[in-house]
Every structure is written in C-alpha cells, then in structure tokens.
Design a protein that fits this description.
With 237 residues, the protein is an alpha+beta fold. It has 3 helices and 15 strands. It has a domain of 135 residues: Sandwich (Immunoglobulin-like), CATH 2.60.40. Helices cover 17% and strands 33% of the residues. The chain has a 6-stranded mixed beta sheet. Strands 3-2-5-6 form a 4-stranded antiparallel beta sheet, with helices on one face. Helix 1 runs parallel beside helix 2 and helix 1 packs antiparallel against helix 3.
Length: 237
C-alpha cells in the first residue's frame, strides 16, 4: 500500500459534473475556446448554438461521435452530426485514426508510445504521455516490464506535494491512494525505481456515461492507447 508523505494546500477534485443518463439530444463539452463552456458540461444538441468568429467548441455525442464547431456558426449542433454510423466501435476507431493523422500533419511528436494495455483504466508509467482517469474512481498505475520489488513516488510538476510507497515484485498494477488531489490537464512525475515518467492526466467527468462516450473522449484528448483498449473490450461484448 502507498502512503502520503507530504501534502500542502490540498483540495478536492474540481471537475465533478452531475451524471445520469444522457438525453437523446444531449451533447457533452470536451473543450472550448472563447466560450464559457467547461469540459463535462451538457449542451442541448437540438437548440441553436451561436459561435462568433474565432470561437470553437468540441462536443461529444452519446454514441461516441465527436462534433467540432467553429464560428461563425448559428445552428443546432445536432445538424452537424454525421449520418448513419450505428457501429460505435467503427466510428470511434476512425476517430483514433483521424486524431493520429491530425497530429502528424501539424508535426507534433507524440510522447506516448503505441502500447497494448491490459485494460482501458490503467495509467502507463513505463512511457511518458497522456492518460485518462475517471472522476471518483481509483487510479491504477501499470508497468509493462521490470516487475521487480521497488519504490514508487508521485508528485505534480511543481512538487507541491508528494506521495511514495512500495510496489511489490511480480505485480504489474498498483492502486493509488483515493484522496490524491489530481486535476485535469495537470502534469505529474511518477518515479518507479529511479525511472521518471512524466504523465499528463485527463479526468473523464461523470457526465460521460457510457463506454462509447468514454472511448470518444479518450481519443479526442490524446489517450489513444486507452481508447484502443476500450474499443477492444467493446468488441468482445
């Protein structure tokens, strides 16, 4: 088990949005620019949404589809949804491919290696990159190699607090303390036996209520390996 060593100025997670089943026309905000819309906030897709020039919003539908809008725009977001596409797995898999193509086009070097995860809900500490975690759920660290008995520590980039503990030999997964003050879009340094893994965490809000939406969210914010693992899991159902 891990134990907390230092904690200063701790606060609870800020990104908690009321959950519940999504309505047929309800869309969830993934990100926005120039608008007072926050990640996880619901938007009625059947009502007109006005965007001025330069404003942008990315929305998530209940089937995992991503809708990107740019101003000037004045229409119901539902009108921009792509027709057909009842195959959720194919739709989200295409989204993963699309995002990877976009990052290549703009010359972004992806820090996250293409790794096959044991399940969609682990944070890879073997490679630097972006990992998604669900709000209110335990965070589980995962290492793909070197399962030796070792020490592990976690701290935000500003080192305002630190947590350390023992990772038993032979175990590839380790649960983090439930009370860690993790925040969305923040960078953390995970030290496993002297090997550092910078990880940026993206917190999936409670308003993202099904696996298709979670896969879409994961892919859109850069958690491609987790999205792929979730798609593989959905394919077995």
């Amino acid at each position: 088990m891990m134990r907390r060593i230092v904690a200063t100025g701790l606060s609870a997670l800020a990104l908690v949005v009321a959950g519940g089943a999504a309505h047929a026309t309800e869309l969830i905000v993934v990100e926005s620019h120039g608008l007072r819309l926050t990640p996880g906030e619901p938007v009625d897709g059947s009502k007109p949404l006005t965007l001025l020039d330069g404003q942008q919003v990315t929305l998530l539908a209940s089937n995992g589809q991503i809708i990107r809008l740019e101003g000037p725009f004045n229409a119901a977001p539902d009108s921009q949804a792509k027709g057909g596409g009842t195959d959720v797995r194919s739709a989200v898999a295409a989204l993963v491919t699309e995002r990877q193509a976009r990052t290549s086009e703009v010359g972004v070097v992806r820090g996250e290696a293409d790794v096959k995860l044991p399940n969609p809900w682990v944070v890879d500490v073997t490679h630097p990159g972006t990992s998604c975690v669900e709000v209110g759920k335990p965070v589980v660290l995962w290492r793909s190699s070197d399962l030796s008995d070792t020490q592990v520590s976690i701290a935000p980039a500003d080192r305002s607090w630190s947590v350390s503990g023992h990772w038993p030999g032979g175990a590839d997964q380790l649960s983090m303390p439930a009370n860690l003050p993790l925040r969305d879009l923040k960078s953390y340094v995970i030290n496993v036996g002297g090997k550092l893994a910078p990880v940026t965490l993206r917190i999936i809000p409670a308003s993202v209520t099904n696996d298709a939406m979670r896969a879409g969210w994961m892919s859109e914010v850069g958690c491609d390996n987790q999205a792929s693992a979730l798609l593989a899991m959905l394919g077995k159902k």
